[in-house]
Specification:
The complex is a heterodimer of chains A (590) and B (192). Chain A has 590 residues and is an alpha/beta fold. Chain A folds into four domains: 3-216, Rossmann fold; 221-332, Rossmann fold (3-Layer(aba) Sandwich); 354-527, Thiamin diphosphate (ThDP)-binding fold, Pyr/PP domains (Rossmann fold, 3-Layer(aba) Sandwich), CATH 3.40.50; 534-585, Alpha-Beta Plaits (2-Layer Sandwich), CATH 3.30.70. Helix content of chain A is 35%, strand content 17%. Chain A is built from 20 helices and 22 strands. In chain A, the strands form six sheets. A seven-stranded mixed sheet of chain A has the order 3-2-4-5-7-6-12. In chain A, strands 14-15-16-18-17 form a five-stranded parallel sheet, with helices on both faces. Chain A has a four-stranded mixed sheet with strand order 9-11-10-13, sandwiched between helices. The radius of gyration of chain A is 27 Å and the shape is globular. In chain A, 55% of the residues are buried. Chain B has helices spanning 16-29, 77-83, 103-106, 116-123, 131-138, 144-153, 160-170, 176-189; strands spanning 4-11, 33-37, 48-56, 69-74, 87-96, 125-129. With 192 residues, chain B is of the alpha/beta class. Chain B is globular and about 45 Å long. The relative contact order of chain B is 0.16. In chain B, strand 4 (69-74), helix 2 and strand 5 form a beta-alpha-beta unit. The two termini of chain B are 23 Å apart. The mean pLDDT of chain B is 94. Classes of the chains: A alpha/beta (590), B alpha/beta (192). At the A-B interface, strand 8, helix 11, helix 14 and strand 20 of A face helix 1, strand 2, helix 2, strand 5 and helix 3 of B. The structure holds thiamine diphosphate (TPP). Residues 26-28, 52, 74, 76-77, 80, 372-375, 392, 419-422, 446, 448, 450-454 of chain A line the site of thiamine diphosphate. Thiamine diphosphate is lined by residues 26-28, 52, 74, 76-77, 80, 372-375, 392, 419-422, 446, 448, 450-454 of chain A.
Chain lengths: 590, 192
């Protein structure tokens, strides 16, 4: 029976049916649910690795050992894993190896917009791109076949709307695939110059064969309809284009690298005007132009953000496509007369341990080099306490660089803030640099005992593995001491008075220091914060706004200040900042 | 039933995903091709969230375009307003009466519009429901999502039993009773 699955769940099902033996990943929206779903299958080894580079290395090792293996990540994760990616293309595989990468057009949950198809092209590996959940499952299985047939890692490119949409999937047979034999093969798996030169030519030959495969592959489909317009599209963009002009002719690409030259040329010959509809970069469009064909693309569709049916229809209309074959429903919406609708940005949750830290940093007016996680929300008003946010792990190097640029005094007014998961992912090397190169940075590790932003995954310092089983708990304090930081202290971010003292002392110190702000995430299942809600005594409240400066969603400022008892978890920070003692636990109106 | 498009909108954490999953399950049981597009990640931390739901003979895009939604099911009033232009002419907005001020409003940087009811009802058919009160009466404020789903269900042609079955399948075991009651209260609201 068909099931309504997320694209990510469908990839997991595909991996299961393809008999993946080892799956490794580091979480990242929109890719996280792939690995979470795989972890529900008993007989697949699955892990959260400390970062994507390690994840890919684990998967590659498993593949060389003869197992089908998979590594999953978001687009920026592939930057971290790019080093093993490029050389895994040289070694090729033994058991099938698939790298699932989820791009985030529109940056729903990301710090940049990247188009991973370029990685496929640059590393000379094939890239498949599904457009719905059924294809996500089918392409995952196919990717393993291609991987083994051509001795190459294969990339499966997802995008947010394919990863996070549900559509119907027909489950299939689980394949009977065993371990392949492992044989030592220095020429293939030891990539030093002499051997790599040999493999480099293999790569070129392989790509040629893959291109021939692409010409005939079932997943590259031509659908002829009205031939006045022919659209080439893949993935989510295909759906939007299909919706915008169901009557057009289509070349739907399931394989977006290598591209099928002859198929494209032939399609171009058979339609009057050729369009490419693609999200993010002009990847397919540029390729088609190199074939000397006339093609319309980003002249009519935006170069940034994600597409939608509406955007595609608008673009085709602007390009002069006859309206008989366009679906113009979008032009006919209701007239809502409203001048400005307040934005609703995400915010730190009620009871979030990060809030106390930012309250202190704001009060002390420090320069804060930031990092990526829930705590990045501290950059937004009213906390407004972050100066930089680049990529995972960057906060520490950024703080060190600021000090080296402007002198030691800077480190007395600067702190780096970094989450526990992020610190393990790629912060530790930055800290080693600070110690090694005689810096004096103060680093605050926000240890909420989880990877919060991506939906609460375990990591090496939580003491549990992906299946929730107890695991060795990495000690952050010992780790920091071991790299040479002499000033390491653990503080409770809810105790803002003490926390402030700690920050003052550590920023004043002329040597590297680490403050571990330790308190579990309020949403964490095994440690959920749920104290009785607080309330405001309206008789004594002077509406000074001090509590509002915490940016807590439970504090409501409509017809006076009140606390939403449905979402308040009783952390008490608001009571601590109230100058008139008008906020307290329990209902003060009773 | 013709091709149908529904937007479920609210504030991250309000449980929009649960209701869209129930709705999706019902549409599948009703024999339709179905696509849902969900929001996971950052916006779930109290941001504006939207789930797109579409079903029909064959659905391509998982996204509902502007002017395409037959229904907007809003868990919060400001969110109803934010997404209103996605409504098709002749469509219906079903909205919770609940106001959740976003942080910029709390900080006094922006104003929560006072006249949302009038703006919406002058542009479309609306149905404003105090779902929080009904949910509390059923035993849990959290059941707001299922109360609203009940109201929507009474406007769709699926058999009621399909809904009840989907609820039993998807909501946590120990909340089946509360949610069934919440659904029924919503379902009966527009009757009579
Ligand atoms: C290279 C890379 N991988 C993954 C992500 C996705 N991501 C963003 S923040 C984050 C981790 C957040 O965990 P933590 O540092 O513990 O902070 P918290 O959210 O718990 O406050 C992840 C995995 C990313 N942005 N970049």
């Amino acid at each position: 029976m068909k099931k309504l699955l997320l694209g990510n769940e469908a990839v997991a099902l595909g991996a299961y049916e393809a008999r993946v033996k080892v799956a490794s990943a580091y979480p990242g929206t929109p890719s996280t649910e792939i690995t979470e779903s795989i972890s529900r299958y008993e007989d697949i080894y699955v892990e959260w690795s400390p970062n994507e580079k390690v994840a890919l290395e684990v998967a590659l090792g498993a593949s060389i050992a003869g197992a089908r293996a998979m590594a999953c990540m978001k687009h920026v994760g592939l930057n971290v894993a790019a080093d093993p990616l490029f050389t895994s293309s040289y070694t090729g595989i033994n058991g099938g190896l698939v790298i699932v990468v989820a791009d985030d057009p529109g940056m729903h949950s990301s710090q940049n917009e990247q188009d991973s198809r370029f990685y496929g092209r640059a590393a000379h590996i094939p890239v498949l791109e599904p457009s719905d959940s059924q294809e996500a499952k089918d392409f995952t299985k196919l990717a393993f076949d291609i991987s083994e047939k051509f001795d190459t890692p294969v990339m499966l490119r997802m995008t947010t709307r394919v990863s996070h949409s549900r559509s119907l999937v027909e489950p299939g047979e689980r394949l009977d695939v065993g371990l392949r034999d492992y044989a030592k093969d220095v020429g293939k798996y030891v990539m030093m110059p002499a051997m790599a030169r040999g493999r480099r030519t293999v790569l070129v030959e392989r790509e040629k064969k893959l291109q021939e495969y692409a010409e005939k592959a079932d997943i590259n489909k031509v659908e002829y309809n009205d031939r006045s317009i022919g659209i080439i599209a893949a993935g989510g963009a295909y759906n939007y284009a299909k919706e915008a002009t169901p009557g057009a002719s289509f070349l739907k690409l399931g394989m977006v690298w290598p591209l099928p030259q002859d198929l494209i040329k032939n399609f171009a010959k058979n339609v009057e005007r050729l369009f490419v509809v693609e999200e993010l970069e002009t990847f397919v469009e540029d390729y088609i132009k190199t074939l000397g064909l006339k093609v319309f693309g980003k002249d009519y569709f935006p170069k940034t953000g994600e597409l939608s049916y509406e955007i595609v229809a608008r673009g085709l209309k602007a390009a002069g496509v006859k309206s008989e074959i366009l679906n113009l429903a979008f032009e006919d919406f209701i007239d809502v007369k409203v001048s400005s609708i307040p934005a609703r940005p995400p915010a730190l949750c009620p009871g979030c341990p990060h809030r106390g830290v930012y309250h202190v940093l704001k009060k002390l007016n420090l320069t804060v080099t930031g990092d990526i996680g829930c705590y990045t929300l501290g950059a937004l008003p009213p906390l407004s306490s972050m100066d930089t946010c680049i990529c995972m792990g960057a906060s520490i190097g950024n703080a060190h660089g600021m000090e080296k640029a402007r002198g030691k005094d800077v480190s007395g007014k600067t702190v780096a803030v970094i989450g526990d998961s992020t610190f393990v992912h790629s912060g530790i090397t930055g800290l080693i640099d600070v110690v090694y190169n005689n810096g004096a940075a103060t680093v605050i590790i926000l240890d909420n005992s989880t990877t919060g932003m991506t939906g609460h995954q375990e990591h090496p310092a939580t003491g549990f593995n992906i299946k929730g089983e107890p695991a060795y708990k990495l000690s952050l304090e010992k780790l920091c001491e071991a790299v040479g930081v002499k000033r390491v202290r653990v503080e409770d971010p809810f105790d803002m008075e003490n926390f402030e003292k700690a920050v003052l002392e550590e920023t004043a110190a002329k040597e590297p220091s680490v403050i571990i702000a330790r308190r579990p995430c309020a949403l964490l299942k095994r440690n959920r914060l749920k104290n009785p809600p607080y309330s405001v005594n309206k008789d004594t409240c002077i509406e000074c706004g001090a509590c509002l400066e915490l940016g807590c969603p439970a504090i409501v400022n409509m017809d006076g200040v009140s606390i939403d008892k449905d979402i308040c978890v009783g952390c008490g920070l608001c009571a601590a900042v109230c100058p008139t003692e008008s906020i307290a636990g329990g209902d003060m109106s009773e | 039933m013709n091709d149908t498009a529904i937007l479920i909108v609210g504030v991250g954490g309000q449980g929009t995903l649960l209701s869209s999953r129930i709705l999706g399950e019902v549409a599948v049981a009703g024999g339709f091709d179905v696509k849902l597009s969900e929001v996971h990640g950052m916006a779930q931390r109290g941001g504006s969230v939207v789930t797109h739901v579409r079903f029909g003979q064959k659905v391509y895009s998982p996204l509902v375009g502007a002017g395409q939604a037959d229904f907007i099911l809003a868990f919060e009033k400001l969110e109803a307003l934010r997404w209103a232009r996605y409504l098709k002419k002749g469509g219906l907005i079903i909205s919770n009466t609940r106001k959740i001020p976003p942080i910029p409003v709390t900080l006094g940087l922006q104003k929560y519009p006072e006249d949302i009811d009038e703006i919406l009802s002058s542009a479309a058919s609306t149905c404003m429901v105090d779902a929080g009160r009904i949910a509390s009466e059923c035993g849990s404020v959290k059941a707001v999502n299922v109360v609203l789903l009940g109201v929507l269900a009474s406007r769709l042609a699926f058999e009621k039993e399909l809904w009840l079955r989907a609820i039993r399948k998807i909501v946590p075991q120990n909340t089946i009773e509360i949610n069934t009651e919440a659904f029924n209260r919503g379902y009966e609201l527009l009757k009579g």
